[in-house]
Amino acid sequence: MVFTKPPLPVALLVLVGLADLVTTVALYSAGLVVELNPLMRPLLDRSPALFTVVKLATLAAVFVALQWHRPKDERFVRKAAAYGTAAYVGLWAVWVGLAALLG
Length: 103
Fold this sequence. Notes:
This protein is mainly alpha-helical. It has one domain (8-102). Helix content is 77%, strand content 0%. It has helices at 8-29, 41-46, 48-69, 74-102. α1 (8-29) packs antiparallel against α3 (48-69) and α1 (8-29) runs parallel beside α4. The longest helix is centred in the C-terminal third of the chain and has 29 residues, at 74-102.
């Protein structure tokens, strides 16, 4: 079931994560942002490649877990992915707002 087409909420969660990854690495590499996530900041400061590998592994683990659980309870998977996406975007918006305020 992991390799079947994911439901839209799962795909959106992964796409948001990938968009965050690409924009973070690009803007960080250009010296325009710092990573505000205290768990990921040391990885990005050490190496954008290391940050990328860990971020991709995290996204892959979430995708596999959701797809694996989907045959047991697709309704739960859809809701979990939708809430996860909303939380991700909300947290990102707060962090971008804080970064803008802090300069």
